[in-house]
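stage 2 :: seqdesign
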């Protein structure tokens, strides 16, 4: 076994140990969120917990957020990087392994694939029809839709995604994605459009 593989396993073991400590720290918040989920339809406790944890600085703060979201979202890998000020607004999100989110992101009902890299100040609201019905009229109830970001996609700073983005894409900084985008493309503009295909030599970036 090579030294790099031994070091990689050692590093992952240390990370798993820190995650275990973080889980113990956030366990009261996890229990409170679990009770809210099973006793009511609200998400106020979840919202308070996410806001508090978003403001914990440093590596320990990132680990606390990973531990909390791995325990409370619909599905979330413990191997995530959730930056300072970043929070999820709904429990219904799904997050794959090795996802990294920069600072001050706001994520709603989103399905984020493995290996996605998200820059700072990115917003992924819960779809584009939250306040409209199928006929485009103002709705009396809020309707949430999950926005999917395919595996291996990179999302630039300040982008807003209210429609699906395929795997292996690059979303330019400041882009506003309002229509579903295919796999393997460079996306930019407001409203966003496909600029050109993106070539990759890593098959993981175009596979969910």
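stage 2 :: out
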């Amino acid at each position: 076994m090579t030294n790099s593989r031994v070091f990689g396993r050692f590093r992952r073991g240390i990370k798993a140990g820190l995650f275990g400590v973080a889980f113990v720290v956030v366990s009261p918040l996890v229990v409170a969120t679990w009770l809210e989920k099973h006793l009511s339809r609200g998400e106020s406790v979840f919202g308070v917990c996410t806001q508090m944890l978003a403001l914990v600085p440093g590596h320990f703060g990132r680990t606390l957020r990973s531990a909390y979201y791995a325990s409370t979202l619909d599905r979330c890998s413990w191997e995530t990087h959730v930056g300072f000020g970043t929070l999820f607004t709904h429990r219904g999100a799904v997050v794959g392994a090795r996802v990294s989110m920069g600072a001050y992101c706001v994520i709603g009902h989103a399905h984020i694939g493995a290996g996605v890299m998200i820059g700072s100040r990115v917003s992924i609201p819960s779809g584009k029809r939250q306040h409209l019905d199928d006929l485009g009229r103002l709705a009396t109830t809020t309707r949430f839709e999950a926005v999917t970001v395919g595996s291996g996609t990179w999302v630039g700073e300040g982008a807003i995604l209210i429609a699906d983005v395929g795997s292996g894409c690059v979303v330019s900084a400041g882009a506003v994605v309002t229509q579903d985008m295919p796999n393997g493309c460079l996306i930019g503009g407001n409203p966003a459009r496909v600029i050109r295909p993106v070539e990759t030599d890593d098959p993981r970036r175009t596979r969910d």
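stage 3 :: structure notes
- The chain has a mean pLDDT of 87.
- The two ends are 29 Å apart (CA to CA).
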